[in-house]
Amino acid sequence: xxxAILGGGFAGLSVAxxxxxxxxxxxSVDLFDPNVIGKGPSALSSGLLHPYAGRHARLSxxxxxxxxxxxRLLTEAARGANRSLILSKGILRPAxxxxxxxxxxxxxxxxxxxxxWDKKRCEKEIPGLSLPEETGxxxxxxxLTVDVPGYLEGLWQACARxxxxxxxxxxxxxxxxxxxxxxxxxxxxxxxxxxxxKNLPLTPLKGQVLELxxxxxxxxxxxxxxxxxxxxxxxxxxxxxxxxxxxxxxLDPKPDQKKAEEEILPAITxxxxxxxxxxxxxxxxGFRASSPNHLPMxxxxxxxxxxxxxxxxxxxxxxxxxxxxxxxxxxxxxxxYLPDEVRHDLQPPQLPDQS
Length: 355
Fold this sequence. Notes:
This protein is an alpha/beta fold. The protein has eight helices and 16 strands. Strands 3, 4, 5, 6, 9, 10, 11, 12, 13 and 14 form a ten-stranded mixed beta sheet that branches. A hairpin with a 5-residue loop joins strand 11 and strand 12 (239-243). Helix 1 packs across helix 8.
């Protein structure tokens, strides 16, 4: 069986790995992506892996399964990269309101992999952190900060060793379609630009991230921080990344540093004052896709065409678990392998002139 995957980010690489790993030689996979693997939109991810997202920090839908499967893929990618891909372990979520204090304390009480830290402990463990009186934060013990470009490259190397070929394009001409038994579209916000997927209800969101020089008088962060915005150390630990913006209705893919500064910096310095006036080393921008229920979206259009998109800001959490389900769907041509929450059914269209 010969399978084409259009898109080499979290979604495409996860499905490619699971297809190859579960068949061991009976399936070949061609990966189409215009970017160098590890340099596309998925590489803009914060690298924060944890299941307690949202302002309430409640356990995300499918969070435990997502964490388990992503850990497995991290192991495979580390073998492919021949190095560790974990930048730090542990994530602290400072509470910024009385409602969050209650919610975070409830999560700490309900889940053994979290703890409530009061203000004193937060500021002791994280030099430079400054919280209001009577507050604190939720410490996620098993939270990880992942080297995302390295992870994507390592996962690609693992796939390549099993025979995957990479073509630097996302276009397959109609006369080439007959070469493939299955075709998966996993192109993020570009997925519904494919004619047969134009009715997918996805919304493109522009996100921007700033890189700041780290203050020389402060030790590097021992753990990453998530409040209104996130703060993570860079791989070299001499700078940090802060983000991200959430911009709807913006079509310009170029970075807008002024916009990023206005949205990100006040939120960051409100809980980490030492970054006030820090030198800005760079600004990156990219697009991701969001679905109506803010969960990934996948499905089968016909025996030939499939899609997997809208991983959004939880790409690290969901790509491995759901990628495994999507791979099974493709092999057996059964959309019933997908959880109802992410399955989206489309009517089979006429074959497009170009995909």
